[in-house]
Amino acid sequence: xxxxxxxxxxxxxxxxxxxxxxxxxxxxxxxxxxxxxxxxxxxxxxxxxxxxxxxxxxxxxxxxxxxxxxxxxxxxxxxxxxxxxxxxxxxxxxxxxxxxxxxxxxxxxxxxxxxxxxxxxxxxxxxxxxxxxxxxxxxxxxxxxxxxxxxxxxxxxxxxxxxxxxxxxxxxxxxxxxxxxxxxxxxxxxxxxxxxxxxxxxxxxxxxxxxxxxxxxxxxxxxxxxxxxxxxxxxxxxxxxxxxxxxxxxxxxxxxxxxxxxxxxxxxxxxxxxxxxxxxxxxxxxxxxxxxxxxxxxxxxxxxxxxxxxxxxxxxxxxxxxxxxxxxxxxxxxxxxxxxxxxxxxxxxxxxxxxxxxxxxxxxxxxxxxxxxxxxxxx
Length: 379
Ligand SMILES: *Cc1c(COP(=O)(O)O)cnc(C)c1O
Hints:
Blueprint: E1 8-13, H1 14-27, E2 33-37, H2 39-43, H3 47-54, E3 61-64, H4 67-75, E4 82-84, H5 93-98, E5 104-105, H6 108-116, E6 124-131, E7 139-140, H7 144-152, E8 157-163, H8 174-193, E9 200-204, H9 206-210, E10 219-222, E11 247-253, E12 256-260, E13 278-283, E14 301-304, E15 307-314, E16 319-322, E17 334-341, E18 344-346, H10 348-355, H11 359-366, E19 372-375
Parallel strand pairs: 1-19, 2-3, 2-10, 3-4, 5-6, 6-7, 6-8, 8-9, 9-10
Antiparallel strand pairs: 1-11, 11-17, 12-13, 13-16, 14-15, 14-17, 15-16, 17-18
Bound molecules: pyridoxal-5'-phosphate.
The site of pyridoxal-5'-phosphate has 13 residues, from α9 and β10.
């Protein structure tokens, strides 16, 4: 929570999270499972709070790469199973399994280590990741059948899931993803014929779903769209206006107002000099909270008393704001970098334009750096 001792905050809107989830459910055929990607601190939104909000929403699993955050979800008593993206050495498998997590396996050494860590007489559940063409991580698609066959003979191992990942940035990637989905479907067909299909199969994430691509897997694993972030570099692939950014507000308060003489120079770089006499307001939020310094020539603004005020400078811990024309501004006034105030709005697209980053990278820049408030928390 933000306090007068340091007024700066980020607000994440859980109503929007639930609305995005509802939209995802409308896009997915009935009978398919939905897995939530909570990696990277829930894409910068705060994994503990997001996991808590989504627990009980009927998701088939949470997936993360963070051992610490996964353990915290277990310790918080969440009921949704937690599956780990590939991120452990074979020698780390035992720790994951002992913590009640389901590891991803991408090679025989990892599978053997997981089998050895199974409880006596029991089996360790694992997911297998296949590289269907991204060229990053997983068992090569052509080797996947033999690999699963070898794993099925290991006592102490239960293959609970099989997945791949096919992200793409723009319309030129759509055809590639479509052909790779078809290849993964081929694997699923062969496994079905051989009665070796794992219970959970998944290939589509935000890109494929948003682009309207379909497949024969029985689950999807979604990150970006859940948080209202576009997975694409531009808007040529799909209209994503049905998804709203969960990051709803970033703000601070004026802690000081100075009337500066013309020519007084607290300037940081050419573009921010006080060339005329100016009233400048200061709010305690800056680079250390994830804000970028505005690009030369750009004029991002904030909202104060429902009016736009240009940013003069961003320093490590302070934002300096031009208050010319906002004569009634007073110490304690809210300063919004994102959000709505007295009928005026700075939307998420405007914030990302200032940051010069994608929506995800903007959320990551602010991740865990400001006191977070979650709007719409269940009673
Ligand atoms: C991150 C991730 C996802 C989710 O991707 P989005 O594009 O954010 O929906 C799905 N699968 C894997 C393997 C991932 O690493």
